[in-house]
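Below is a filled-in request sheet from our internal design queue. Each sheet records the structural input a requester submitted and the sequence that came back. We keep these sheets so that new team members can see what a complete request looks like end to end.

REQUESTER: design group, bay 2
PRIORITY: normal
MODE: inverse folding
CHAIN LENGTH: 366
BACKBONE (tokenized):
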């Protein structure tokens, strides 16, 4: 079989990484880039080593092309539905960035289009491809903790990139939808049960609607900017109850300056029914302590071989596995369904903050 011919729709912070990463894979041919932001296109083209794609400004020019097998869509969340459905209906396989969409309605329209077209749809839930989180799951499968009873995530960090759409809830879905669908998916994956209800408390401590908020961010290529239209929360505590009695909690702070320098960075931890604990820190290390055998393990995980250019752990493995799924006709590990399950928790948390009550997930799905 020849190389997989690919198009990239949106090459901002995330899409440029995808384009550069797929360009490095043997089995792919980067044929087209589509973005109306010329600076972002130029940044991306400068990094490509193996291909010279054609550039277009409107994705609709690509829908009828026969030399495209798959597209990678990294446009802002509120455009996921429009772009993903168009390419699925045109018969292309789709790698779509997380969250599946900013609303459940859009998410379900995308899933329906994937089912109708019988194409592969993989979601950019990159943690599912990370050496680190796969190792945690392997420890659980081997029975190191027994069933996971309690889980937590501390996501204390600097703000989103200084780009307006992140701060507009009608475009991103809100901070919890945009950011924490990743972590809710890890909860669902490790706990292995069905989430039932969510309670959350959150608000605006520092970045407030209507005031000139000076936004700086540690990883984006965009310069600092003042953004006044901020309709998302900048902090929250969120609790999730599962149908097997397990519970998970996530703490979110989006206004650390400059970023988390405390060493532990992102922390994801769990306690099993045997009393053992397992904690991942900084997307790099795992500590496993206690439980039946009273041992203490510290694991430094190789989170370089699964990524590129210092990008997210799992970033390059998710691309290689997308291609493998296309070649073998296999459903992706980060399927649209797991993306939807994570989105449901995020939407319930956003609703719980607004309505100051428990939100049951089955309220949302109706
Ligand atoms: N998996 C992760 O860890 C991760 C990290 C960051 C962002 N993301 C996701 O990636 C997506 C993009 O985020 P980003 O940070 O790259 O945003 P960004 O604003 O940097 O980039 C978006 C790009 O899409 C382009 N665009 C907008 N509408 C378009 C259209 N109709 N056709 C073609 N191009 C269009 C913009 O010009 C811009 O270059 C979002 O869904 C976000 O949630 C995922």
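RETURNED SEQUENCE:
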């Amino acid at each position: 079989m020849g190389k997989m011919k690919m198009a990239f729709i949106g090459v901002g912070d995330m899409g440029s990484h995808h384009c550069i990463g797929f360009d490095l894979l043997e089995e792919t041919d980067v044929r087209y880039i589509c973005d109306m932001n010329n600076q972002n296109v130029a940044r991306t083209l400068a990094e490509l080593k193996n291909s010279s794609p054609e550039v277009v400004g409107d994705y609709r020019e690509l829908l009828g092309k026969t030399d495209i097998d798959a597209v990678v869509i990294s446009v802002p969340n509120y455009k996921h539905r429009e772009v993903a459905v168009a390419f699925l209906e045109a018969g292309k396989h789709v790698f779509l960035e997380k969250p599946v969409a900013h609303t459940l309605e859009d998410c379900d329209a995308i899933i329906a289009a994937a089912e109708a077209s019988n194409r592969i749809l993989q979601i950019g839930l990159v943690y599912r491809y990370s050496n680190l989180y796969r190792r945690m799951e392997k420890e659980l499968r081997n029975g190191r903790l027994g069933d996971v009873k309690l889980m937590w995530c501390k996501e204390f960090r600097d703000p989103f990139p200084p780009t307006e759409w992140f701060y507009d809830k009608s475009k991103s879905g809100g901070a919890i939808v945009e950011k924490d669908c990743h972590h809710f998916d890890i909860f669902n994956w490790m706990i292995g049960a069905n989430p039932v209800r969510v309670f959350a408390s959150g608000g605006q401590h520092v970045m407030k609607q209507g005031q000139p908020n000076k936004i700086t961010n540690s990883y984006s290529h965009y310069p600092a900017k003042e953004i006044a239209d901020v309709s998302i929360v900048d902090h929250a505590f969120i609790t999730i109850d599962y149908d097997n009695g397990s519970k998970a909690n996530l703490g979110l702070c989006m206004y650390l300056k400059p970023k988390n320098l405390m060493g532990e960075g992102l922390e994801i931890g769990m306690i099993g029914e045997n009393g053992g604990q397992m904690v991942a820190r900084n997307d790099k290390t795992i500590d496993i302590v206690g439980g039946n055998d009273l041992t203490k393990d510290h694991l430094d995980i190789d989170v370089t071989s699964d990524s590129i250019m210092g990008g997210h752990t799992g970033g390059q493995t998710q691309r290689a596995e997308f291609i493998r799924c296309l070649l073998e006709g296999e459903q992706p590990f980060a399927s649209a369904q797991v993306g939807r399950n994570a989105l449901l928790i995020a939407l319930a948390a956003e609703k719980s903050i607004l309505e100051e009550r428990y939100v049951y997930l089955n309220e949302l799905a109706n």
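SHEET NOTES:
- The chain has two domains: 4-126, 130-302+333-364.
- DSSP finds eleven helices and 17 strands in the chain.
FILED BY: M.R.
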